[in-house]
Design brief:
The complex is a heterodimer of chains A (331) and B (334). Chain A is mostly helical and 331 residues long. Chain A contains 13 helices and no strands. In chain A, helix 6 packs parallel to helix 13, helix 8 crosses helix 9 and helix 9 packs across helix 11. Chain B has a single domain, classed as P-loop containing nucleotide triphosphate hydrolases (Rossmann fold), CATH 3.40.50. Chain B has ten helices and twelve strands. An eight-stranded mixed β-sheet of chain B has the order 6-7-8-3-9-10-12-11, sandwiched between helices. In chain B, strands 2-1-4-5 form a four-stranded antiparallel β-sheet, with helices on one face. In chain B, helix 3 runs parallel beside helix 6 and helix 6 runs parallel beside helix 7. The longest helix of chain B has 18 residues. Classes of the chains: A mainly alpha (331), B alpha/beta (334). At the A-B interface, helix 1, helix 10 and helix 11 of A face helix 6 and helix 7 of B.
Chain lengths: 331, 334
């Protein structure tokens, strides 16, 4: 064969060890994720100490004797310099010990273990609802090719994004809790599936914004995909309906939405605090706010560390999933 | 000759829906005949309706909100202009293959090459999965892709543009169609790879006696590989001529296209261009649509409908009403 062909076919050889290359990339990403989590911890550790106020003083009150405050500082391990404090914290972290809350005399890990699942359930449930609603909507609007439907879609999603979550939450309570008594006003049970009884309304409220954002992004990706040449080849090949929708429309369009969703899920860790306080859910956001207010160093450090881990894990997983869906995505 | 034609497009009109009430005619009067095993080049400027004509042949006009508003597209005795979905299912992919416009966007990015070849072979229900896999590998051999086992497992983004287009050709010939519609198959490829792809298409024609419509705006390229050339301008076919006789063209547009060939220009000399712009799509003037740019325009060219084909010989039709006058004027200048 001629030289051009040889050159062209060389590209094929490069991809021989696909799996190895992929495993290598995953490994790199994993190490990088750990590094990010570490820096998040460092920043959280520093920032809370830069904030004015003293945990010992906060605990004993403004009228406390200076000697008593000093004694408590020593007891809490705050008398040594910050660098040493950090090493102490980090040493404990490796052993799985995040210290004791200055405020409640409880293990920080214990606080996280009871509060985090509430928030994760809420996020998971909201995301699940949004995915199941957003995908059909985006698919329908993008393929309908109808100006009026697209207009209604755009205006409704705009309204839904613009409306503040807490407003929708209050509306939800007014309708579903007070008028029809379908949802409990407040409270929580940690066991599944009883907890869904308490979670469905906050999750639904959370999902209203999420559905709007996700379906908009997905709608524009699908519209772009539909203009692509390969969709034409799918028609020529006579692909049957469900397969066509998945492999020729949805799968090539999903990657940006998946990446965005993984990012939003990380952000939601912090923003669900609004839902948690409106619906009186004992979630991690509530714990973090109380800890920050009372300068509860170990709790703030512990929770931000976990947040860092989770955010990094979410985006790692989102990128991995986007790559799995669509090989054009760089990983 | 017309009895044996595989494809007979006659006075085809294609319109596009702009809104609920507005329609725009984008192809008006396109006629073309393709014989079995014939390689025919379709050439014209952007917006001349080449791609739409191709879509009419593969039945994907509706996806672009376009439809056939007049004329007929006969394929082996069936009128594709009025064909329903069940007819298309029997024809599309099975008897008419398609090689898409852009090599880079042609293959589905989320499917492996193997999956796409198997999909293309899917129209043949008698083929078992194991046989289909074997056949898929044979197809890659036919389009001269080396190491087919490796390529089969790869995704399109791992292949070069030339390889992608080879894969698309493999998909198009999967079920041994009688006709392949290749809509600018070499757009975005290196010149050397372009030549390779053209050679490959020609080999496929010779090997399987497949008729091929090759769309391009590159006249020398088309002239090299095709038996017959059809020239489109402003939504109409203006001349159909055997490529060996291209120098005996009787249409001013074809002559102008031929003269503006880059390879005919002197080194570092001035390039010859066609004066003026093609008329805006659908906003066509009365008379011949080339009359604003034509050097040989007469009063008769300015009135009435766009001229229909005038049969000069079995392999030569021209839409220039003044073809005799042109010949007298340019004489042997070509």
């Amino acid at each position: 064969m001629n030289t051009v062909n040889e050159k062209v076919n060389k590209t094929a050889e490069k991809g021989v060890d696909n799996r190895k290359v992929f495993a290598y990339r995953v490994g790199i990403r994993f190490i990088r994720s750990i590094a990010v989590a570490f820096w998040v911890t460092v920043i959280a550790f520093t920032l809370i100490r830069l904030a004015p106020g003293d945990p010992a003083q906060a605990r004993l009150g403004a009228a406390a004797e200076p000697e008593a405050v000093e004694a408590l500082r020593k007891q809490l391990g705050l008398d040594v310099n910050p660098l040493e404090q950090f090493f102490n914290f980090f040493r404990g972290l490796i052993k799985g010990d995040m210290g004791i809350s200055l405020q409640f005399d409880r293990e920080v890990t214990d606080i996280i273990f009871t509060a985090l699942p509430v928030t994760l359930w809420l996020i998971g449930f909201s995301v699940l609802i949004s995915i199941f609603v957003a995908i059909p909507i985006a698919l329908f609007v993008a393929t309908s090719n109808n100006v009026l439907i697209a207009y209604i879609f755009r205006s409704t999603t705009a309204i839904s994004i613009a409306l503040p979550n807490f407003f929708i939450a209050l509306l939800g309570i007014l309708i579903f809790s007070i008028r029809y008594n379908w949802a409990p006003l407040l409270g929580y049970t940690p066991s599944f599936p009883e907890n869904l009884k308490y979670l469905w309304l906050p999750a639904l409220v959370n999902a209203t914004t999420l559905v709007a954002i996700l379906s908009r992004v997905l709608y524009s990706s699908i519209s772009d995909t539909l203009k692509e040449e390969f969709v034409e080849t799918g028609v020529i090949r006579g692909i049957k309906r469900p397969r066509f929708f998945w492999f020729y429309i949805l799968k090539p369009s999903l990657a940006p939405t998946v990446v965005l969703l993984s990012y939003i899920m990380g952000v939601m860790l912090g923003t669900t605090i609004i839902m948690e306080s409106i619906f009186a859910l004992p979630g991690i956001g509530t714990e973090l706010i109380t800890a920050v207010i009372s300068r509860d160093y170990p709790t703030v450090q512990g929770i931000t560390f976990i947040f860092g881990i989770i955010v990094v894990f979410f985006s790692f997983f989102g990128d991995l999933m986007a790559y799995w869906l669509d090989r054009r995505v760089k990983f | 000759m017309s009895n044996s034609a595989l494809v007979d497009i006659d006075s085809l009109q294609i319109s596009v829906r702009l809104s609920r009430t507005r329609r725009l005619k984008i192809v008006d009067y396109a006629s073309m005949k393709i014989n079995p095993g014939e390689m025919i080049g379709l050439i014209g400027e952007s917006g001349s309706g080449k791609t739409m004509l191709c879509r009419a042949l593969i039945g994907t006009l509706r996806r672009r909100d376009a439809y056939i508003s007049g004329g007929s597209v006969m394929f082996d005795g069936m009128d594709l202009a009025t064909a329903k979905n069940d007819v298309w299912r029997q024809v599309r992919g099975k008897r008419i293959g398609y090689v898409p416009q852009s090599a880079l966007a042609g293959p589905n990015p989320v499917l492996t090459i193997e999956a796409q070849l198997l999909e293309s072979l899917g129209g043949d229900e008698t083929l078992s999965r194991a046989d289909a896999k074997k056949r898929a590998k044979e197809l890659l051999d036919i389009v001269q892709i080396r190491r087919p086992d490796i390529v089969m497992k790869q995704y399109p983004n791992q292949l070069s543009g030339g390889m992608k287009q080879r894969v698309m050709i493999a998909c198009a010939i999967a079920l041994q169609p009688e006709l392949i519609v290749a809509d600018e198959p070499t757009t975005g490829l290196d010149v050397t790879v372009q030549a390779e792809i053209m050679k490959l298409l020609k080999e496929i024609r010779d090997q399987f006696n497949t008729a091929i419509i090759l769309v391009s705006h590159d006249l020398p390229l088309i002239n090299d590989v095709c038996d017959q050339i059809t020239v489109m301008h402003a939504g109409a076919t203006v001349e159909n001529i055997a490529s060996a006789e291209i120098e005996k063209s009787k249409h001013p547009y074809t002559i102008a296209l031929y003269k503006s060939r880059i390879d005919l220009a002197p080194p570092r000399g001035e390039l010859i261009t066609i004066a003026g712009q093609p008329p805006a799509v659908g906003a066509w003037q009365t008379g011949c649509r080339f009359n604003q740019r034509c050097d040989f325009v007469t009063d008769a060219c300015l009135i009435g409908e766009h001229p229909k084909y005038i049969e000069l010989s079995a392999t030569h039709q021209t839409a220039c009403i003044n073809h005799a006058g042109i010949e007298a004027k340019i004489g042997s200048s070509l």
